[in-house]
Amino acid sequence: MLKRCNFKNQVKYFQSDFEQLIRQHPEKIIILDFYATWCGPCKAIAPLYKELATTHKGIIFCKVDVDEAEDLCSKYDVKMMPTFIFTKNGDAIEALEGCVEDELRQKVLEHVSAQ
């Protein structure tokens, strides 16, 4: 399942699929956080991801439950959790694997400043 973090510290479920989100925002960076509810490192980095989502409104932050979105996991070759895929128009432009807080923060800042 694909969830989009809104900017009021909540997560809402999308009824639409990822391709529709891309069509709606072709020029925006979309960050996909591939996580699992049972994953300890995913839980550890979740507060930072939420903070980034509320701070950087020029980027769309989504959470993808790997147990419910095998097609997206396959498309982006996700092998571990958490994995963060930075996309533009559906194409992966950057990927981070693991609970890499400093790297995640740095990559988000790079993409925000490039817009």
Account of the protein in words:
By secondary structure, this protein is an alpha+beta fold. It has a single domain, classed as Glutaredoxin. Helices cover 37% and strands 30% of the residues. The chain is built from 4 helices and 6 strands. A 6-stranded mixed β-sheet has the order 2-1-4-3-5-6, with helices on one face. Helix 2 links the parallel strand 3 (29-35) and strand 4. The protein starts with a strand and ends with a helix. One of its GO terms (biological process) is determination of adult lifespan. Residues 2-114 form the Thioredoxin domain. Belongs to the thioredoxin family.
Average predicted local confidence, pLDDT = 85
Number of domains: 1
CATH T-level fold name: Glutaredoxin
Share of helix among residues? 25-40%
Based on DSSP secondary structure assignment, what is the total number of beta strands? Answer: 6
Tell me the Rg in angstroms: 13 Å
What is the strand content?
25-35%
H and E string:
EEHEHEHEEH
**Could you list the spans in which at least 5 consecutive residues all have pLDDT below 50?**
7-16
Helix/strand class: alpha+beta
Separation, N- and C-terminal Cα atoms: 28 Å
Strand order of the largest sheet: 2-1-4-3-5-6
CATH homologous superfamily (4th level) name: Glutaredoxin
- The CATH class, by name, is Alpha Beta
Coarse morphology: globular
GO biological process, one term: determination of adult lifespan
Disulfide bonds: 39-42
Keywords: Disulfide bond, Electron transport, Redox-active center, Transport
Site (Deprotonates C-terminal active site Cys): 33
